[in-house]
UniProtKB/TrEMBL annotation:
<protein>
    <submittedName>
        <fullName>Dihydrofolate reductase family protein</fullName>
    </submittedName>
</protein>
<feature type="domain" description="Bacterial bifunctional deaminase-reductase C-terminal">
    <location>
        <begin position="6"/>
        <end position="177"/>
    </location>
</feature>
<dbReference type="InterPro" id="IPR002734">
    <property type="entry name" value="RibDG_C"/>
</dbReference>
<dbReference type="Pfam" id="PF01872">
    <property type="entry name" value="RibD_C"/>
</dbReference>
<dbReference type="InterPro" id="IPR024072">
    <property type="entry name" value="DHFR-like_dom_sf"/>
</dbReference>
Length: 212
């Protein structure tokens, strides 16, 4: 078995992915727009996110997102969010951190320093590994191409500040669109990309015109 690592992010048009769910989720840098996704969330997004979560069999998280999830989801296994909470509580959870996070949430393991080797082992152990949020950690996965799918829910707002999926200095990369875009009622667009080898090519339109 070779499992897949899927990154799931909510972003703005300017690809800010910081703190979509709650004002106090991540105030790094004095970020003033925490909870920006809430006014634009709709049933299409909810149903697709719910379906994706129901199919995962492992969570792979950065330290900050793990701390947020561990403080919230074990206490929300009933009610509206119950299905998500129960799934997160049930599956194994893996934390990428250089520090010493408290691993109080059941089924949690901290990854070792050799990330590539650790992820190779996770692929042999699980079929559907999802990385949710964890923007800082995601940038490492993207730079080293240690993922199989990048799923972006892109919302029709611009914030102009905050942690971006691809910040200045990101590693140049080629990607391919894995499925047709899906559009929600409130204008969010789901884009699903996979990594491709090489770096972006360049060209000259004048040369293309002559060749045509």
């Amino acid at each position: 078995m070779t499992g897949r690592i899927q990154i799931d992010l909510f972003t703005t048009l300017d690809l800010v992915a910081q703190a979509p769910g709650n004002p106090d989720e991540d105030r790094d840098g004095g970020f003033p727009f925490g909870g920006w996704q809430a006014p634009l969330f709709d049933d299409v997004v909810g149903q697709n996110v719910g379906a994706a979560i129901s199919g995962l069999d492992a969570l792979l998280l950065g330290r900050k997102t793990y701390d947020i999830f561990a403080a919230y989801w074990p206490n929300h296994t009933d009610g509206v969010d119950g299905a998500i909470g129960r799934q997160f509580d049930r599956v194994p959870k893996y934390v990428a951190s250089r520090g010493t996070p408290a691993l109080d949430w059941q089924g949690t393991t901290q990854l070792g320093p050799d990330l590539a080797a650790e992820l190779s082992e996770l692929r042999e152990r699980h079929e559907n590994i999802h990385v949710i949020g964890s923007v800082d950690f995601v940038q490492t996965l993207l730079a080293d191409r240690l993922y199989d799918e990048l799923g972006l829910w892109v919302y029709p707002i611009v914030l102009g500040q905050g942690k971006k999926v691809f910040p200045d200095g990101a590693v140049p990369a080629n990607l391919e669109l894995l499925a047709p875009p899906l559009v929600s009622a409130n204008g969010a667009v789901l884009l699903r990309y996979g990594p491709q080898p090489g770096v972006p090519a360049t060209g000259d339109f004048d040369t293309l015109d002559r060749e045509a």
